[in-house]
Amino acid sequence: MASTNPLQFIQQVRAEVAKVVWPTRREVMLTTVMVFIMAALTAVFFALVDLLIRSGLEGILGFFG
Question: How far apart are CA 65 and CA 60, in angstroms?
């Protein structure tokens, strides 16, 4: 494994960081809002599935019990 001195390492790190394309404030806000919307939709979906399964099980257990 080739070793580099600390100065070369820092120069390489700075060169790599310069290649990063950072998102704009608008992109970050839009992505954040989309994550919250998707999380809410997922929560509603699983709540409905839970309600459906629970009522189905209560119906089955009520029929036999």
Answer: 8
